[in-house]
Write a structure and sequence with these properties.
The protein is built from two helices and nine strands; from the N terminus they run βαββββαββββ. It is an alpha+beta fold. It folds into two domains: 53 residues, Signal recognition particle alu RNA binding heterodimer, srp9/1, CATH 3.30.720.120; 66 residues, 2,3-Dihydroxybiphenyl 1,2-Dioxygenase, domain 1. Strands 5, 6, 7, 8 and 9 form a five-stranded mixed sheet that branches.
Length: 125
Amino acid sequence: MKIEHIALNVEDPAAMAKWHCENLGMNIASTNGIAWFLADDEGHTILEIYNNPDNPVPDYASMNPLVLHLAFVSEDINADRGRLLEAGCTSCGEPTKGPNGDAFAMLRDPWGLALQLVNRSKPLV
């Protein structure tokens, strides 16, 4: 089986979709005005963001970022981190390096959703 998309219930999907497109290189693959399907820059991964008022929106900002985060490949973590902080992200600490040389930085987007920037010594895919 192949994963089609991952979905997140959020407060303001239109604004979040716009910000993610402008700042993370996502593209709107489809929308019906209720749900926005965002594709990564290669069109292989789809994130659905929507608002279902009948169900609570998780308090993403209060979650430990290791519980749920979106990870983005970054060629220059420090530059991307600085750019995203200027665009409204907040920091979840300083960038780190793993023992195998992988580099990471954790941020939160303006809605509190955790974003991880990653530069792996050997790409996962």
